[in-house]
Amino acid sequence: MHARTRPARRLLTACPSRLRRADEAMCCLHGDKTPEIHRKPARRGDFGWLISLLHVHLPLCLSEREIDLFVLVESVNMSESEKELGEQRDSTKKKKKKKKKETPSGKTKKKQQQGERREQEVVQREQVEEEHSDSVVLRGIFKLGKKSHDVLLTRTRLTWTPITPETPTTGEACPPQPGVLLLRDVYAVKVKRRRSAGQESGGAVLGVALFCCRRRGRRLEQDTLQLHNASAEHTHTWYNTLKELLTAFSRPRYLKVFINPSSYKKESVHIYREHVAPLFKMADVRTDITVTERKGHALSVMKECKLDEYDGVVCVGGDGSVAELCHALVLRAQLDADSPEKPVRPVLPLGIIPAGSTDVVSCSVHGVRDPVTAALHIVLGHKQQVDMCSFSSLGQLVCFGFSAMFGFGGQSLARAEKKRWMPTSRRREYALVKTLARLRPEDCQLSFLPAKTSTRNLSEHRDNQDLDRGPEETWTTNQGLYLNISIMSIPCLSPHAPRGLAPNTSLANGSAALIAVGNTSRSEFIKHMKRYSSSSEPFSFSFVDTHAVSAVRIRPRSLVGWTEEEEESEEEEGESRPTPIIQSEGAAFPWNIDGELVEIANEVLVRYDDKKNLRNIIIINILIDGVLQSETGTSLMIHLISN
Ligand SMILES: Nc1ncnc2c1ncn2[C@@H]1O[C@H](COP(=O)(O)OP(=O)(O)OP(=O)(O)O)[C@@H](O)[C@H]1O
């Protein structure tokens, strides 16, 4: 294979029919009049079709924009907020009971309302007292802003109420609402001192500062609560107690950090220095930093380093770097456990600081693409289980990852990778348009094991369908033409696909989403893809099947893999070229695995009339055993096999 150097436009103009198709694809993308072009059905022996089929590709913009880790966020927060909700519900029930008992009957409505309000206030105060009286660790007076407050500290929260002088009217007025800060949101506590410019130590004590996170939707922001009290003794008592209480939370103290300086706009180092390092310093988290020098550097460091020294690993980069580190963590766990085949749960969690172009994993896990949110999740010790896949070929492990695309997804990425010299956005647009212009379905056998849990839209696929009933597992097999096949163990959210590329799967549900896009017209395919970025349902097309799966096997029926030489010869000779018999030694099918191009080589000498000798198979297995930081988590394996 070799990269062509001709400019994209020249390539497209090389053949008028190709230019027409590119323009049609562009029209569809930009919402202009959509030309209807239907593909001819696959014919055996039509090698020209086969060649162009291999040039089909997937929306790079989608595949690349798609996305544990020290993460999550969602389940941690959800379970906690559910608890809080439960508590609120209980207290509301209590309130209602008390109200029923205490409200006197036969009074006027106004008096009743006043009485009820007072009772509510009493209940609220009692509730706050109740919640904290048992476990009050400290109580004191601090100034918050300019007002003095009565501050209560329990093992889980800090509560402050303004101290207001009693007046005859205060009974009628609404009492001040207490402020609350949960200690689980506090990542650092410091003594505040008055220092003159240039003074580095000492200084008069002013009080205690608590550094915490504030939630704004899915985003976490830094916040500070200042408790002012000039008494050094009082302040130190509070400081020491707060420090001790914070040690009860399981948080990292020493992290191995990998920074990929070449990610996207080469801003990773800057992002780390500006947004992450200060937070780590504030939270007293020590770091051991490696700035990667090449692809595979992080993996080789991870294979050698002493993991028991660290509390976690942090990746500053894009999806490719995340995938490399996830792969390294799972591989290392397997090596350490001397378990070459069965995935073993890694000892360390992985923190992801997004610095790539799409950051699908970070978006899926954090809900937003924000380095500060990610860093706060790390220092606060939030953890999330995430399903992972293993991809293997010929029974050999290729890599571990979160998502894989075959067909349009793999081909578009392969096409874009060959134009690395182009700026990122131009390269993507070029690959997308060119692949759409050559949209061809892949003829393959798709087998999958439905997940034991719920499946969605298990519509019958056209063509042949048969069931291989093994002793324990029931494989569903479809033979047909597919424009794209995606397998995703996470929802793959990104700014370009806000609901995700696989909205029906979650981070750790023990299954993967299989999205099989059958053969259709270009305009329908583009319509389907465009729905990922809108609020419309992208799967409500007859040619799209979605399944919750635990294993997938894909066998392309093509004789040859996708090679640059073949593409070039297609360009030169046009599509009407007669089908040659090709020996495809070294040819490979491009797969898009977590935004990285993985080409699976065919090791068999192939002849056109000996189709059965060449097969590529992908199997995804889900092991209900947990891969990342979880007692009950799940892991997902994909084996990519060719024979
Ligand atoms: N110093 C380096 N030079 C070149 N490549 C590197 C270097 N360090 C790491 N890599 C590799 O670069 C690949 C891409 O990195 P990454 O995904 O972080 O960036 P990106 O492709 O710009 O981001 P995204 O995947 O979000 O588009 C990874 O496979 C990683 O192993």
TrEMBL record:
* One annotated GO biological process: sphingolipid metabolic process
GO CC terms, sorted:
membrane
Specify residue ranges for compositional bias: Basic residues.
92-112
Region of interest (Disordered), ranges:
80-129, 561-581
Domain DAGKc, chain residue ranges per copy: 250-395
Listed A to Z, the keywords are: Kinase, Transferase
SMART domains reported for this sequence: DAGKc
SUPFAM superfamilies attached here? NAD kinase/diacylglycerol kinase-like
What's this protein's name? Putative ceramide kinase-like protein
Question: Does the record bear Kinase in its keywords?
Answer: yes
Output compositional bias ranges, type Acidic residues: 563-574
Output compositional bias ranges, type Basic and acidic residues. 80-91, 113-127
Q: Name one GO molecular function term.
A: lipid kinase activity
Instruction: State the organism of origin.
Output: Scophthalmus maximus (Turbot)
What domain of life?
Eukaryota
